């Protein structure tokens, strides 16, 4: 009897401990407030930090102009924030030289929400997550995975670098900073669980997922098979509208063939690779541009409007998506 009671208590303690552990892994949330008219707009930029070189400054200049026109609320960075190998520490002056001193336009003095790319993991990955950077420039907010939300939109930022097997088994000459990740498999399993739960519970009008690696791309790296296998089914099952990424240094728009999801690459913040493409004839490809640029997003209760810009500020491609307001029964 006493043994049974003990084992019962033990089970409760273990379960409780497990719940606490699981709850603590829940994705951190940041609240967004919409404009007075209920809309939100933002810019999306990826693969940028080169101390202004390779047209980074020109892209920044055009972002400032478009940001002002759209009265943007924030900026999303899809990762590979600092080249070639992330930051060396939270006192690396590349942070100011590639970020603070480049994105100087008034319209860009808003919150920046950033994920880490594979190049960021080649330096001190934790430096980019450090509150020290926020003291240097309060716009900066970079975490591995997190959620930004309002009633209008929920944006799920997912740490995609640890999904890619080659970075673990064939890192070649590169060293990745896996502190804070531990083993690949449990990290991914827990992350997918958290993302799935958060997506399932979301009641936002628009659901957007942001990661560094493309799910679908015709650029240099192409599709990311690990994300197709593990992340995409969760996104398809939970009616997300857009998946936004960087990694390939281009701008592109590809439609999912099995769901309404639109794949949008904005990884053209500085160096681009002209003509470095594959599978250009695929049917799901709507738009591809192999020069520098960025993307803008405007959301209302009923409409999403997304535009891709080149380094001269020309609109290269536009997509719109509409949703009916719920009719009263
Ligand atoms: Zn990358």
Automatic annotation (TrEMBL):
Residues 41-250 form the Calcineurin-like phosphoesterase domain. Its cofactor is Fe cation. It is found in: Secreted. Fe cation 1 binds at residues 47, 80, 83, 249. Its main location: secreted. Belongs to the metallophosphoesterase superfamily. Purple acid phosphatase family. Its EC number is 3.1.3.2. One of its GO terms (biological process) is response to hydrogen peroxide. GO terms for molecular function: acid phosphatase activity; metal ion binding. It is an enzyme of class 3 (hydrolase). The keyword Iron applies. This is Purple acid phosphatase. Pfam families: Metallophos. Keywords: Glycoprotein, Hydrolase, Iron, Membrane, Metal-binding, Secreted, Signal, Transmembrane, Transmembrane helix, Zinc. It comes from Cajanus cajan. It catalyses: a phosphate monoester + H2O = an alcohol + phosphate. InterPro entries: Acid_PPase, Calcineurin-like_PHP, Metallo-depent_PP-like, Metallophosphoesterase_PAP. One of its GO terms (cellular component) is extracellular region. It comes from the Eukaryota. Binds 2 iron ions per subunit.
